[in-house]
Amino acid sequence: MPDYKFIRIRQAELLRLVPDEIFKQIKGVDDEHIFRVKTFADLIVADITQLVYGAFDTAGRIKGLLWASVDVIGSCVCVRMFAMDPEYQVGGLKRAMEFLFEQVKDSKVDKRLECCTARPKAFYNAGWEDSKYKHLVYEVKDELSTDIEITEPDDQDIPQGDDIPD
């Protein structure tokens, strides 16, 4: 098995250097998704709740990407994206999850990972189980109404004193 090491990506330029072929290992990811990640790379790496790691081989080439975020409300780590060069995929998911646990072991989050995937068999094989939660999606089918007028509230609209419900 080829050797690699996960290293935290803290510079947007380094995130932009992740080869498109790595992103495309994820089912459903296309050029538009890659464009958005690279466009918003500055915001992604600046956010302390985002854990972005490159899998670097011994020559310093990026062979994979692990992106997770800390859910402070749910007290868990959500895997957003995990992709490896095909040559590095054997055992990669399990290794990535163990690595993530190591990174958050001293934090206040539970020792629980969550994800949404189009390839559940790979996750089941790595020891994942179905969640008690159901992943839901809401998609806007038509243009949103532009008839909505946004106004500032009048003082009359803000409850005062005895008008505030218990």
Describe the structure.
- This protein is α+β, with helices and mostly antiparallel strands and 166 residues long.
- It has one domain (4-131): Gcn5-related N-acetyltransferase (GNAT) (Aminopeptidase, 3-Layer(aba) Sandwich).
- Helices cover 26% and strands 21% of the residues.
- It is built from 6 helices and 5 strands, in the order E-H-H-H-H-E-E-E-H-E-H.
- A 5-stranded mixed sheet has the order 1-2-3-4-5.
- The termini are far apart.
- The mean pLDDT is 86.
Domain module count: 1
Low-confidence region ranges: none
| Structural classification | alpha+beta
Report the end-to-end length measured between terminal Cα atoms: 63 Å
Shape: globular
Q: Using DSSP, what is the number of strands? A: 5
Notable characteristics:
about 170 residues; alpha+beta; Aminopeptidase; five-stranded mixed beta sheet; 5 strands
Short recap of the structure:
Helices cover 26% and strands 21% of the residues. It has a single domain (4-131), classed as Gcn5-related N-acetyltransferase (GNAT) (Aminopeptidase).
